[in-house]
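STRUCTURE:
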């Protein structure tokens, strides 16, 4: 699988996996998260994600940037409210979905 800018997906995942303690599943999760951030509203956040994907910046550098901190801290209250308002069944389904994705990540998919 190739990324839209020509850098192979596997190369990016391998680099991210190394940064995540050598865990390929966590590398794939980071890759998907970074790809989603490339379409963020905040142009600085989009730039940060692209820099990490292109190898110009580390994940650590990205999360230490003020733009990243602003976005994350601004969304935490809404996320907490959303989780608090979920039924126990909805929370279980959410957790099951994450667990299924983790299994796929561990399997290489």
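SEQUENCE:
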């Amino acid at each position: 699988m190739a990324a839209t800018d020509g850098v192979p997906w596997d190369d990016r995942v391998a680099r991210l996996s190394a940064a995540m303690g050598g865990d390929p599943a966590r590398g794939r999760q980071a890759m998907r998260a970074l790809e989603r951030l490339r379409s963020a509203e905040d142009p600085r956040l989009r730039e940060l994600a692209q820099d990490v994907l292109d190898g110009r910046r580390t994940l650590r550098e990205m999360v230490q940037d003020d733009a990243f901190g602003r976005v994350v801290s601004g969304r935490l209250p809404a996320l907490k409210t959303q989780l608090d308002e979920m039924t126990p069944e909805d929370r279980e389904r959410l957790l099951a979905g994450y667990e299924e994705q983790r299994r796929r990540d561990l399997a290489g998919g």
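REMARK: The mean pLDDT is 85.
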